[in-house]
Amino acid sequence: MAPSPADPLTGGCLCGGVRFEVVAPVISASYCHCTHCQRRTGTAASAQARVPREGLRVVAGRDLVRSFTPPVGIAKLFCSNCGSSLFSGDLDAGEAVGVRLGAFDHDPGVRPQWRQWVDSAAVWEPVPDDGLPRFGGPRPG
């Protein structure tokens, strides 16, 4: 069942200061193996869902959300209290926002559909042979 205002997907940061709801169907989900995601998460890849910007509501702690925009790429948003990585993009503009799958309270009902930036994959953790399409850089389209 797709999330809706009456039955949203919920999530938040580690300290609980930032809480959010997704009230629209998730567009897609993917893994990113770029160096930015590796350094931002401390892992070999970042798993995220794309949601319509209008379908994401920050319901608590908006004042705790901080942003870092790398020289190349889009803004990475995190909780300034606990450091949890939460979103990518702009919460106030654009068509979609990335939401870290690990920030959801429960199963968001979507699974990653591709892997991108595999040319930058960490050498210490091989990219799994899981049958997902792979792209050396960003996914085309």
Report on this model:
The protein has 141 residues and is mainly beta. The chain has a domain at 9-30 and 43-111: Metal Binding Protein, Guanine Nucleotide Exchange Factor, Chain A (Beta Complex). Helix content is 5%, strand content 31%. It contains one helix and ten strands. It has one helix at residues 35-41, and strands spanning 9-12, 19-22, 28-32, 46-52, 56-60, 65-68, 76-79, 85-88, 96-100, 115-116. The strands form two sheets. It has a seven-stranded mixed sheet. A three-stranded antiparallel sheet has the order 1-2-5, with no helix packed on it. The mean pLDDT is 95.
Strand order of the largest sheet: 6-7-8-9-4-3-10
Give the topology string: H per helix, E per strand.
EEEHEEEEEEE
Number of strands: 10
Total DSSP helices: 1
Largest sheet report: 7 strands, mixed
Mean pLDDT: 95
Q: Over all CA atoms, what is the radius of gyration?
A: 15 Å
- Beta-strand percent range: 25-35%
Q: Architecture of the domain at 9-30 and 43-111, CATH level 2?
A: Beta Complex
Main structural class: mainly beta
CATH topology of the domain at 9-30 and 43-111: Metal Binding Protein, Guanine Nucleotide Exchange Factor, Chain A
Helix share, percent: under 10%
* Cα end-to-end separation: 27 Å
What is the CATH C-level name of the domain at 9-30 and 43-111? Mainly Beta
Large-scale geometry: globular
**Uncertain segments:** none
Brief description of this entry?
Helices cover 5% and strands 31% of the residues. It has one helix spanning 35-41; strands at 9-12, 19-22, 28-32, 46-52, 56-60, 65-68, 76-79, 85-88, 96-100, 115-116.
